[in-house]
């Protein structure tokens, strides 16, 4: 495989296909090697099903976009392999998240721990994190590229796990302070999903520092807005579109900016409605309208919409004032708009 | 810190102290950085207590021994830092193992999941695995060293996790075939604890291939013998010396060569004694003597002792025929003898 970087267009689908080819080949090699050594193949098999069942590959796409944004040209291969390692890391994170959230399904299939056991899924997740290393270390990077990329990859990983840790630490403890929820969004989504992949890709050119500030400004703003939109969709979205049961965040006692703002402004009866549903792990959906009314009447919904608009605007301004290649600016503008205004 | 490699002696205590200094400094930096960014410090704190509570640092010692065995000279620093990353990986493995084994204590202290929660400990373990990467990638290795070391580190990690996976897959399913138990010992102990650290250290010299066969022959033999000795001590050892409750392996339904050999040769009543204790998660200690009698009368105990002797001998032969520096041969000989004849 040798995909050339197109000079003036960014083909997201081609990136996804190339990344999936790398992942499929890697897993085939792992399965083969496990078989040769009489080792269990369940890990590679479970992962294969997991990766084959969907996923938007947003991190790999952003990694390749970051590489091109920083002036990357020539063969895409190293960028694609580094991007594939991000998707592998994401698989690790989801496998362990699903254990922690006690989720039954992921991408319409039973979760890995549901297919095996909690203990097996802990180990499969661990192995997948090692696979992510193997993909990155075997990406054919030059020593200079490796030197630039490893600290960014490690920071992205540590930040993601810190974000998860913060998330579970605050779960079930509704607070009227939106600070923690925003910090979680920054680590768990903005750095992990948007800024980190962009910076990792940019670092591959050895010249990532020049546009680091632009990618960070754009990535963090879009990432935060993405999470805020997700919080709104979790309450006001259509479950058949979002693929996520309505009010799931509330059921899990998730710390969100939306909830914090509502608690901040709620009067006594409104506060009781919100607390009732947080304290009740399986609220009946009949309560959904009551909650929506409180979130709307307290102004929380409007404030969150304003926060999204501000962040989208600040991302677009960062892009407008930077001197990125036109086709990359177009990709990032389109991401900033779609991630923050999506309705599904 | 700059420790010079002594030309003719190998000071294990100095290696342990230097490794502990690297680990302590690393964790202090992590705690500080988490504090600066308002991130939870529990991970670094839990790990600090964990590392401070003991541990023999056998992997770091072997890593530095492997480096010297392959002709490493000059400053010990990169070898010490790579060695510290092995100890960090070991901490990760123990944190997740303790969850899987539902262990209450580790090194005389509550386990990490006991101090926090299962979910927090999954994430703390994950973070510690990233810390291991950060230590290795920041060990000041040259591009050539990194190139040689990363594939070995990744293989060691994957093999260890495969070994754990095999272990839990076979737990509670007593078999008269010693094959799986020996495979688990190879991955979970021999490769992870002995061969892998030796090879990693040797790779640091860029000239590890020359003595790879010797280190593998010696490391695998000692590692298997170590596990076989451990199995015997788990049944016949003195719990006050081993620090492990007697018959714990049996209670956990652990797959051991000792048990498989006994089942292979047991008659009906003997088999019933063995199965009774595997099926009963909390056998009373009064049954211990009955089990010891069966393991002895079936010849399993003697066969395992013979397997240990064979492996010790083959390790010593591998060392005798290799042309390693005298002081390193002495260290490895002493390890081969102590690991296989230890009574505590």
UniProtKB/TrEMBL annotation, chains A, B:
Q: Which cofactor does it need?
A: Mg(2+)
Pfam short name (any one): polyprenyl_synt
Name the SUPFAM superfamilies for this protein.
Answer: Terpenoid synthases (SSF48576)
Keyword Transmembrane part of the UniProt annotation = no
Record-linked InterPro entries: Isoprenoid_synthase_dom_sf, Polyprenyl_synt, Polyprenyl_synt_CS
Matching PROSITE patterns, A to Z? POLYPRENYL_SYNTHASE_1, POLYPRENYL_SYNTHASE_2
* Keywords (A to Z) from UniProt: Magnesium, Metal-binding, Transferase
Q: Would the keyword Metal-binding be found if you checked this record's keyword annotation?
A: yes
Which family, according to UniProt?
A: Belongs to the FPP/GGPP synthase family.
Protein name per UniProt: Polyprenyl synthetase family protein
């Amino acid at each position: 495989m040798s995909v050339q970087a197109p000079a003036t267009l960014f083909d997201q689908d081609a990136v996804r296909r190339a990344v999936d080819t790398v992942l499929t080949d890697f897993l085939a090699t792992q399965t083969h090697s496990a078989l040769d050594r009489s080792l269990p193949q369940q890990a590679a098999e479970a992962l294969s099903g997991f990766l084959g069942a969907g996923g938007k590959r947003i991190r790999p796409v952003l990694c390749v976009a970051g590489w091109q944004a920083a002036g990357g040209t020539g063969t895409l291969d190293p960028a694609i392999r580094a991007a594939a390692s991000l998707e592998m890391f994401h698989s690790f994170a989801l496998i362990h998240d699903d254990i922690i959230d006690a989720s039954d399904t992921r991408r319409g299939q039973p979760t890995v721990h549901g297919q095996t056991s909690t203990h097996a899924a802990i180990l499969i997740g661990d192995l997948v994190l090692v696979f992510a290393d193997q993909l990155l270390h075997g990406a054919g990077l030059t020593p200079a590229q490796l030197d630039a990329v490893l600290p960014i990859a490690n920071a992205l990983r540590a930040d993601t796990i810190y974000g998860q840790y913060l998330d579970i630490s605050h779960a079930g403890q509704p607070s009227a302070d939106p600070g923690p929820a925003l910090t979680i969004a920054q680590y768990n989504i903005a750095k992990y999903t948007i800024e980190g992949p962009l910076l990792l890709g940019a670092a591959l050119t050895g010249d990532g520092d020049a546009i680091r500030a632009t990618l960070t400004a754009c990535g963090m703003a879009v990432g935060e807005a993405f999470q805020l939109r997700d919080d709104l969709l979790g309450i006001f979205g259509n479950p058949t579109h979002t693929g996520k049961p309505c009010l799931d965040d509330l059921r899990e006692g998730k710390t969100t900016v939306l909830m914090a703002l509502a608690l901040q402004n709620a009067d006594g009866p409104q506060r009781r409605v919100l607390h009732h549903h947080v304290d009740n792990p399986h609220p009946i959906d009949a309560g959904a309208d009551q909650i929506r009314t409180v979130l709307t009447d307290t102004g929380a919904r409007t404030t969150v919409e304003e926060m999204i608009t501000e962040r989208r605007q600040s991302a677009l301004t960062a892009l407008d004032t930077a001197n990125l290649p036109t086709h990359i600016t177009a990709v990032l503008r389109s991401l900033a708009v779609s991630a923050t205004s999506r309705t599904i």
